[in-house]
């Protein structure tokens, strides 16, 4: 994903994974990115309200920022995950050579 969108700095996450603080922290640590998570469960309704506000000439991003919380990555965990991923890539390369 980051190869296709290299300027991405914040990931917005919705749905079931947002209910698990552990999963959210792991995702932030794995990606090294800030996660933004809605403070409401009905994100479809929020999106509809934002589109209606924009059509009415209002500024929905302000509403969105108020309705979000952030999960910050832990740089030490990010580095540890990167090292493990490099080992995984080496293993894949080795196994491909055997096949």
UniProtKB/TrEMBL annotation:
Keywords, sorted A to Z: Kinase, Transferase
GO terms classed as biological process: carbohydrate metabolic process
InterPro entries in the cross-refs: ATPase_NBD, FGGY_C, FGGY_Carb_Kinase
Domain of life: Bacteria
Molecular function in Gene Ontology: kinase activity
Pfam families named among the record's database cross-references: FGGY_C
Carbohydrate kinase FGGY C-terminal domain ranges (all copies): 9-55
SUPFAM superfamilies, A to Z: Actin-like ATPase domain
PANTHER family the UniProt entry points to: L-XYLULOSE_3-KETO-L-GULONATE KINASE (PTHR43095:SF3), SUGAR KINASE (PTHR43095)
Protein family membership: Belongs to the FGGY kinase family.
Name this polypeptide is given: Carbohydrate kinase FGGY C-terminal domain-containing protein
UniProt source species: Glaesserella parasuis HPS10
């Amino acid at each position: 994903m980051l190869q296709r969108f290299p300027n991405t700095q914040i990931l917005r996450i919705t749905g079931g994974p947002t209910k698990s603080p552990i999963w959210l922290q792991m995702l932030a640590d794995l990606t090294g990115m800030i996660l933004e998570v809605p403070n409401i469960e009905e994100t479809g309704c929020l999106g509809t309200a934002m589109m209606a506000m924009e059509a009415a000439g209002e500024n929905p991003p302000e509403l969105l920022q108020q309705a979000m919380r952030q999960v910050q990555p832990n740089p030490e965990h990010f580095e540890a995950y990167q090292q493990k991923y490099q080992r995984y890539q080496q293993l894949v390369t080795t196994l491909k050579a055997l096949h």
